[in-house]
Amino acid sequence: MELDTVKDAFDRVVKKQKLSSSKSQEIVDQVGHEIEQTLAKIKAINDPMSPVDLKSILSELKLKLNTVGPLKQLEGVQKERNINLGKYPKLLEKSFNPDISKAYRNVDFDFHIVNQIVADHFYQQGLFDLGDSLIDEAGEPEAIAIRSHFLEMYQVLEALKVKDLEPALNWIAVNREKLSQNGSCASLELKLHRLQFVEIVKKGSKADALSYARTHLAPFASLHMNEFQKLVVCIIWVGKLDSCPHAELMAPTHWEEFTKEIMEQFCSLAGRSCRSPLNVAVAAGVEGLPTLLKLVNVMAAKRQEWQEMKQLPVPVELGKELQFHSIFVCPVSRDQDSEENPPMLMPCLHVLCNQSIMKLSKSSSRTFKCPYCPTQVSAAQCRQLYF
């Protein structure tokens, strides 16, 4: 929303600038036209030494220029433009350089956990020197446990950049049992061999491609016959792959997709999200900061202290990628669910906490309207949800 406001202000400045430029040019052209006409009259005088004719022509020019009033017009146009130009930097300052300390809330952080989170983030990003330095300086030797896992991951990724599949295949072989539990082992192997097969086909060797297909792709044929047939057909089109009916298999994006997938599998086996907790926390903070700053300013005007509030009076809208539902917060009472106040599913499939339902039904069997749709609901029809 802040960016939309800035864009609208920028568009207004651009519009005023163009209008100012156009109007200024129009005034200059008008003055120039009057001067040119005056020069033409002067040249047309029969007696160039006649002071009377020259004086009358110049007086006429002066009168016309006074009527046009170029300086007054230019001052008005520039003043209107300067007003918008003056407001724009203030808006930028307010939007992009706010005093974020106002939205800060005193929290007793467990620095042991914070150090681990930051170190894990560095390792997950491949910044091993930074992670090691943090661990040494903070005295957190146990945080190094995850280092070897991500180090192995980046060794595999670096090998994939040069089309070397051996480290990835070795990793799959070592972790076959764990990967098989989530059904990804065979899929990863097939994708790896498919990528290698395509590279062989691109090099133009039919014999090598056929040999590789028999050795490495044939074991997957029974479960992936359709894909196996497409790959084998590509051998026929060696040397003219642009005309191959399955040319999409040659796209370089397949390497990028596989790299992303193997990163996800590495993180999954390590019990980590593919996106580091620090990354998520910072992204959520940046997205929610404008709302918090507005709240602080509003409450300051009302002389209220938001630091003392147990929960925010307004929702902080975040993108879907930043929404997690390990806990449930009642949309009516804004209370977090608990054993005494569990989430309840209504017949219309909307969910409220039990206490909210009791208040709406006035603790009786009477029906009430769902806060989110026209459905009439009774407390007896609601069922407890378990997360």
UniProtKB/TrEMBL annotation:
| Superkingdom to which the source organism belongs | Eukaryota
| Cellular component, GO annotation | cytoplasm; GID complex; nucleus
Q: Does the keyword Lipid metabolism apply?
A: no
List zinc finger spans: RING-Gid-type.
Answer: 330-373
Q: Where in the cell is it found?
A: Cytoplasm
Q: What are the CTLH domain coordinates in residue numbering?
A: 149-208
Q: What is this protein called?
A: Uncharacterized protein
Organism, scientific name: Hibiscus trionum
